[in-house]
Specification:
CATH class of the largest domain: Alpha Beta
Strand content: 15-25%
Distance between the termini: 31 Å
Largest sheet: 5 strands, parallel
Keywords: Glycosyltransferase, Transferase
Number of helices: 6
Shape: globular
Number of domains: 2
Protein name: Phosphoribosyltransferase
Helix content: 25-40%
CATH architecture of the largest domain: 3-Layer(aba) Sandwich
InterPro entries: PRTase-like (IPR029057), PRTase_dom (IPR000836)
Number of strands: 8
GO molecular function, one term: glycosyltransferase activity
Oligomer: single chain
Pfam families: Pribosyltran
Length: 207
């Protein structure tokens, strides 16, 4: 269990420091991941930015993810097709989600350009993973930016999710991999929603 996201970030920071990574770039998945990443970036004295993807829910159940989309509009799926879901629906949702991503990135960064991961070791940080689909979309998006390495750093995730992501990564830091997993929030004493104002302040502090 973690007390809160800051506590989780400090736990991750200890493991990252032991790796002695030279000049890493910390990229957080908003919103909760930004609070975790702040602790890591502070401990390393490194830069901090965000990477944002969006899931596409099934038309009959918005919480059931059938795909995820990145800032370029490219789709990521765990499987090729879903019976009863037209490809036209997924493409239409991808266009909508992409616009939302770009608007949100501009809002949270307050107009600042994204930090370039080219040739650098990237630490991709979130406050935890469930299925890992949006994280995979983020990883694939970052690969197009040609970093030297991508290391996933999350406080908690199911073992099978990490196994599904492993082949796309150069390393994984995850102290807690419970066998019984219902939701990320169950592994925190305090898991309150992170507000946009806090995310914007953290990013501005590292600008």
């Amino acid at each position: 269990m973690y007390r809160d996201r800051s506590d989780a970030g400090r736990a991750l920071a200890k493991q990252v420091l032991a790796m002695q990574i030279e000049s890493p770039l910390v990229l957080a998945i908003p919103r909760g991941g930004v609070v975790v990443a702040r602790e890591i970036a502070s401990a390393l004295g490194s830069e901090l930015d965000i990477v944002l993807t969006r899931k596409i829910g099934a038309p009959f159940d918005p919480e059931y993810a059938v795909a995820a989309v990145d800032p370029d509009g490219e789709l990521t799926r765990w499987r090729g097709d879903y019976p009863g879901i037209d490809e036209s629906y997924i493409q239409e949702q991808a266009a909508i989600k992409r616009r939302e991503i770009l608007e949100r990135l501009a809002y949270l960064r307050e107009g600042r350009p994204e930090k370039d991961p080219f040739g650098r070791t990237v630490l991709l940080v979130d406050d935890g993973l469930a299925t890992g689909l949006t994280a995979l979309a983020a990883i694939k998006y970052l690969r197009k930016k040609q970093p030297s390495k991508i290391i996933l750093a999350v406080p908690v995730a199911p073992e099978d999710t990490l196994q599904n992501l492993a082949s796309y990564l150069d390393g994984i830091i995850c102290p807690l991999t419970p066998r019984v997993f219902y939701a990320v929030g169950q592994w925190y004493d305090s898991f309150e929603q992170v507000r946009d104002e806090e995310v914007k302040k953290i990013l501005k502090d590292f600008a």
